[in-house]
Amino acid sequence: MRSALLIAIAALAAAGCGDKACKDKTLFVTFSLAGVTNVDGADVSISVAGGPAKTTHVALNPSLSKPSIEVAFPNGYPSGQSVTVDLDVKMGTLLVSSGSATVTLTGSCMALSVPLTAAPTANKHQGDACAPGDVCDTGNCVDGYCCDSPCAGQCQACDVTGAIGTCTTTSDGVPHGTRTACNGSGTCGGACTGASGTACTYPATSVICGAACDGKCDGAGSCSSTTGGACPNGFACGATGCNTSCGGDADCQPNFQCMAPNCVRVPESDCLDGKDNNGDGLADCADPTCAPMVACVPAPPVGDELGLLQAAACPTTFPTTEVQHQGLNAPSCGTTGCTCDPILNCQVSLDTSGSTTCNGVTNFMQTIPIDLAQGTSAYGTCTNYNGTVIAATRLDSISSTTTCTHAGATTPPAVSWGTNSNFCAGARTSATCANAQEVCAAKPPAGETMCVRVPQAGASCPAGFAGQSATWYSQVLDSRSCTCGCNVTQTATCQTVVYFESQTAACPVTGTPSTCFTGNNGIGYCENNPGGLSFCKYPSGGVGAFQIKALATSNTGTCATSSTTSGSATPAGGSTICCQ
């Protein structure tokens, strides 16, 4: 018997055999949709002489009242054999009508009309309550409601409050409806927890179970007979198993206390003394009650310190404050405390002659320089000057100088640092870490990082502290000293010089002398004297004395204070601070 495989089924416009739509060696199937609405497809099942059926879904044009389907037989037209066509006309998954017809094929093209019978009217919608025999337009009556899917999972249901008619994974423990119950009960029993829709969830194999708390769950709903160990969360074993709440310390294991409804471990009284203070066999970093306060960190080399580097005050858990600095600033000496005293000196030069003739005197014997401090007077030599009688004198030149003398003292300005911080060293550590290369130490405050101080500038960082490093200093060596000084900033001039001469030989001059002033008429003044300078002579040519007085009326000279710095200031007490 040849098998008839359907290779092409198409919904066509109504046509009879012999119409050009009917191809050779095909079966032309027609059916009527008169009075039938809301259809979009049909399931077509073809079987030849009782052989296996081939079912194909075809789309239908809802505007056609009498669609047709052309069936091809790829293995040859089964002429002389009986062919059965079953039709289910649907709207989505909802069956609208159905029918069946059988024909024995002859010739090369035959027509077959399949009568349809309307299916029961669907009168229930998603979310409506339903019972066996009711028709839901979703095709699924589950848990008493029309559901959007078959919803067959062990922990699925269509009757979940807030989601009626929608298949939902349940979390209320027991499977709904007629679904298979979870295995076991009590501590190890399974339950629908929301973790899976297809199967119950069971406690882990680490869960303690049994009336004597001497077993463990097997993960499939039963309690094993193996040794269970301690109940979780510090609870003691109760009458029916591990307690899950406490009303007093008796409901908790040893070394736990009741803080209803929870059992909490009795904390260590000291988490850095290396001792088991609460009797649970654990000390410091090994005791979970110390976890908020201490932690294991890499052990620093001998001589290095564990601690924190921070600008704020050190916390009580790191009580030793070691001030650290960077960026030394050592200013040079200033002039505060230094003073300067300016002194004006005037020098008057006199040309001397033995001639009393005013004009044309050129044979001056010598020039006599006379230094005068500001506001002072000086007297010349009497008649016999160096053994020579002075008959006349002439003012040759006037010059001035300013000198400064310093006084007072000053000290170097204080040094300062660009950055100041604190290294806060920890008080204690203990050897209670599982790793022998670590020590138990106080935890840094939130946001802070554990560091180590290596007492050497520019040192390498020890293992475990390679996050950041820098050199810091704790002190400064200062050998600076200051010396005051003065600088002449303006040279003074002798603006007024008074030149006296006397006809007496007395030194100093007494009485009222005859005078010769620079730039003014006076006794013995000659207008055409050489060099344009005043020239005085004795009227009678006799013996006499001269007196010079220098007066500075302004520009007396100024001095600027200065200082010299010797020595230097250098940072000392260097350490390398390395942080995790």
How would you describe the overall organization of this protein?
The protein is built from no helices and 37 strands. The protein is mostly beta strands and 580 residues long. The chain has strands at residues 11-12, 26-30, 41-48, 54-59, 68-72, 82-91, 94-104, 109-113, 117-118, 141-142, 145-146, 156-157, 168-169, 208-209, 215-216, 256-259, 262-265, 294-298, 305-310, 320-329, 338-353, 366-373, 377-379, 384-385, 388-389, 392-408, 416-425, 438-442, 451-454, 468-478, 481-490, 496-502, 514-515, 535-537, 545-551, 558-566, 569-579. The two termini are 85 Å apart. The protein is elongated. The protein has a domain at 11-118: Immunoglobulin-like. The chain has a 6-stranded antiparallel beta sheet with strand order 20-27-19-29-37-30, with no helix packed on it. It has a 5-stranded antiparallel beta sheet with strand order 4-3-6-7-9, with no helix packed on it. The protein has a 4-stranded mixed beta sheet with strand order 1-5-2-8, with no helix packed on it.
Helix content: under 10%
Q: What name is given to the CATH topology of the domain at 11-118?
A: Immunoglobulin-like
> How would a textbook summarize the main sheet?
6 strands, antiparallel
Q: What number is the mean pLDDT? A: 80
N-to-C CA distance: 85 Å
Strand order of the largest sheet: 20-27-19-29-37-30
Rg for CA atoms = 62 Å
| Low-pLDDT regions | 1-20, 379-387, 503-535, 537-544, 550-555
β content, as a range?
35-45%
Number of helices: 0
Second CATH tier, the architecture of the domain at 11-118:
Sandwich
